[in-house]
User: Fold Beta-ketoacyl-[acyl-carrier-protein] synthase III from Sporosarcina limicola.
Amino acid sequence: MNAGFIGVGKYVPPHIVTNADLEKRMDTSDEWIRTMTGIEERHIADESINTSDMAYHAAMDAISDAGIQPEQLGLILVATVTPDRPFPTVAAMLQERLGAKNAAAMDISAACAGFMYGVVTAKQFIESGTYDYILVIGVEKLSKITNWEDRNTAVLFGDGAGAVVVSKVSEGRGILSFELGADGSGGKHLYQDEKLVMNGREVFKFAVRQMGESAESVIYKAGLQKEDVDFLIPHQANIRIMESSRIRLGLPIEKMSKTVHKYGNTSSASIPISLTDDLAEGRVKDDDVIVFVGFGGGLTWGALCIKW
Ligand code: ACO
Assistant:
């Protein structure tokens, strides 16, 4: 019995901040941001929208897409490094707001790879027969830990939420393989010390190497070859990092998810947000073999190979 996604959903806050808006606020340029990152605009949540609000809207979208009721959920996992507060968890707040009265709930902290960690955790509980339906959400309000005085980081991030419902799917489909990993020695390159601090160059080098290696690893673990892959959904951190994994897998440009231009880097939310858009816009189809790969602070990484 395989675990797979039976519903997807997303939410981004309405307010859009363009590169031109940032030019007015700091010493940067639309040209630099586009060329170095691929980002054109990002959605930023105002005071009235917290992390749990974004998570709630994405969750409702995914639950309705899955055609289930909140009471059927056995577990809610929320991957975030920007919870409303340290506790109660965003997952517990959602449990109440969704009316998911039969669900256990916890947050997962693995930075941008958090959604991958959440999905792999959900897979274990589904395949062991412990729970029938698990809600996994990646959500971040990075704007509240962004140092708006630091042009090296302030231009990169956006706010948003993406959600999936994980459940049993028919044989041969769903999650075929996964990889999770961590290297705590790289923690000094990306961390929160009140605000977010990053050594962009070191993170860049790590990401290019790790994304490629992990993507290849899950393909081989699934008993497949690169030629069998129909679509790649990489963490949307920087178009240059994403492109390096696409090229390593030998995929044409139209076979890679790209939403970084409109949402920026939304950390743990970027992969489920992209998946939701890719499905809605017809880029992901039935029977496709999809590779998901993410990396983040920790340093952490995770990848999945899924047959849709
Ligand atoms: N506007 C204009 N100039 C800028 C800006 C900016 N916003 N930011 C930096 N610069 C300048 C620098 O000051 C530097 O100028 P100098 O040469 O005069 O000193 C120059 O541009 C080059 O800066 P670098 O930081 O060396 O440029 P780099 O090629 O490393 O690109 C970038 C920077 C885009 C941040 C890149 O390092 C990167 O994408 N790293 C990975 C970041 C990432 O993915 N982080 C998140 C991962 S985990 C998570 O999602 C939370």
Observations:
- The pocket of acetyl coenzyme *A is lined by residues 28, 32-33, 36-37, 111-112, 151-152, 155, 190, 198, 200-201, 203-204, 207, 237-238, 265, 267, 296-297 (CB under 6 Å).
- The chain has a mean pLDDT of 97.
